[in-house]
Amino acid sequence: MTSPAFLLLVTALLNFMMLLVLASLRRSGLPGVREWLWANVLELLALACYLTTPLNVPVIPILVGNGLLGAAICMFYAGCRRFSQLSVPVRPLVISLVLFLAVLAGLRFYVDQFAMRVVVTSIYHGGFHGLIGYTILRNHPQTRSTYGHDFTTGFAFLLTAGYLVRGVLYVLHPEIKFWYTDYSTLNLVFLTLGAVVIPGLTMGAVVMAHDAILTASEEVASRDFLTNALSRKAFIEYATRQMNTAVRTGRPLSLLLLDIDHFKSINDRYGHAVGDEVLRDFTLIMHNALRAADCLGRLGGEEFGLLLYGASQAEARAISERLRALVEANTIRIGDGLTSYTMSGGLAHWSPEESLQELTLRADNALYEAKGAGRNRIVVSQFTTPTSPPQ
Ligand SMILES: Nc1nc2c(ncn2[C@@H]2O[C@H](COP(=O)(O)OP(=O)(O)OP(=O)(O)O)[C@@H](O)[C@H]2O)c(=O)[nH]1
């Protein structure tokens, strides 16, 4: 038969299993995982204290057990804050826990008020679950939906509601029996819900952590290691997406292909390491000069692609010229001296009937022309409608 003790054992088992799952994330180095692990350990210890209730040593379940469980939810909240790159308010957390335990001690050893203890516990835990839901909701990634964040937020708010209902119920019916000896359906429902609190939240945390790991590895895979510009593959994917958006919105789009002039001679003269430094310096100039929406990709060697979304043909031309002038005016320190380098560019303004390949070909031809015309210049490709062959 289902009893409160049996439910406590099931909770402990669930907890232990989630602890093992969480332990697999220790190596990830993600902030928050350590606190979530501690929350599960503390909950396991709290459950062990509750199981001693029949021994009739009230200090163990009431003060030690509730203290450990209170600390577990504080730890879980701290983990959520650390995971969301927020600081942990250690002092307020400790004060809230001490106050909570002081009130519980008063409600047991000065006036023995079981129902009031349940109300206070419900307010304490309900409040923390509300804070957990709020923290995760506030730090939900802006650009995509993530199941882990949605689940954790929803579950935490649901638990807040559950605790509030329990609190209100005990205010209205203070005659309800002591939980450990109460086999009523209502008590068992509350205990069953309580059993899934930390394991459920931990499951949400694990899914959020997996999402963060996946996002970080996607980011690494899409970036060029040396310059941090987008890799060729990621740039083409990004350009394709932007082109589809431009088709929908009718906003202008330009592609600028950039190439550092005489880069081979920089390598030959100063060595490969300095060549690498020039590549990094070049990317830095671009990133400092561009808007976040303008995307730079390294297409290979010393050739880069820049997608200018939303800029008219005249604007794209002015931006390209400004970038060229910035590179020309820039100096880079090599050993004791300074040196400078230049770049050439081929600019093509997108016409809606053009594919990405056709646009790239035009920009590439313009770049070739810029090199042939003496380098350190931007050549603009003009789109011409292909004429249909005579009938
Ligand atoms: N340091 C360094 N060099 C690279 C890297 N990738 C390619 N290169 C070098 O870039 C050089 C490109 O040389 P070229 O294609 O002849 O171009 P260039 O010398 O800039 O001549 P123009 O483009 O005609 O002005 C080659 O020597 C490659 O070895 C890299 O990641 N680091």
UniProtKB/TrEMBL annotation:
UniProt cross-references to Pfam families, sorted A to Z: GGDEF
Catalytic activity: 2 GTP = 3',3'-c-di-GMP + 2 diphosphate
Organism: Silvimonas terrae
A GO molecular-function descriptor: diguanylate cyclase activity
TM region positions: 6-25, 59-80, 92-111, 117-137, 149-169, 189-209
Keywords: Membrane, Transmembrane, Transmembrane helix
InterPro entries linked to this entry: Diguanylate_Cyclase, GGDEF_dom, Nucleotide_cyclase, Rev_trsase/Diguanyl_cyclase
UniProt xrefs under SMART domains: GGDEF
Domain GGDEF residue range list: 251-383
One GO cellular component term: plasma membrane
Source superkingdom: Bacteria
EC nos: 2.7.7.65
PANTHER family for this protein: DIGUANYLATE CYCLASE DGCM-RELATED (PTHR45138:SF9), REGULATORY COMPONENTS OF SENSORY TRANSDUCTION SYSTEM (PTHR45138)
Name recorded for this polypeptide: diguanylate cyclase
One GO BP: cell adhesion involved in single-species biofilm formation
